[in-house]
Amino acid sequence: MEYKFLAESLRPSANAVQRYFQQRWAIPLSAFKAEEKMDKNVNYAPTLSARTTDHHILCVDVGDVIYRPSLDEFVLDCKNKDLPVKLFIAKPASANDPYYNVNHSKALSRGVGILLVDDDGDIQLIQQPLSLSLTNVRPIVLMDYPTGYRPSLSTAYDQFRQGYPSDACLKIASELEDHSRKIAAKLAKKGAWVTPAGVDISKCPWKNLMELLIKNYPGIRSEYPRLTSDMLSRIVGIIHHRNQTGHKVKNTGQLIRRDRELRTRFENMCDILREFTAMAK
Length: 281
Fold this sequence. Notes:
The chain is built from nine helices and six strands. The chain is of the alpha/beta class. It is elongated and about 80 Å long.
């Protein structure tokens, strides 16, 4: 690999990184680009870049420190443009970073991975990167939710940022379904609506249950005036998308669109769960 700007002392580390990703991520050596912009709209050329088998964009910055302030603009650009970039910092293990702890903390908070390369070319993985397009998801204010939902919400948020947005969306949908069934059972017990013969609130299709609640809304409103028909309709809208989150993508463009859609969906479902639990107290 030819480098124009990388210091001579760092080139062995860059070559070791290529071999590492060839072995671990099945990226051919011929797929790597050196010191080229990986996107025409981003003014940054990483030391190395390549497309991964799952359509992410791998970028590696090789340097003497764990994190450089100049990377902040690149990280922000990737977030704002929804680019599914996985950024690593690769540092020779023998290179002294006087601000190692501070830089490590910055890399961690920004979703940047870290590799240490020893003199023999062996690499130690310090931390995995996050897909920068997914780190842009809006944080969940856990204190806005009942305590029983906070562990699941925290797990779902971490799943989303760690590269599993489909699983995160399904987890929130599951919480919404569980809450819907509990509310439907309480309303039936209070006589706000009459469960039709043959309908098991705990087992019938979720969509059917919500449509029954909407149909019986006049009686429900008299018992729970804070629970609106609009909220019930919003939940029905979620059900339509619940099983469409896990489809595989075929290229980076599809991955960008999917992650953008799932981020919007995830944030919307979290908002609905917060409002629904408040309405149905």
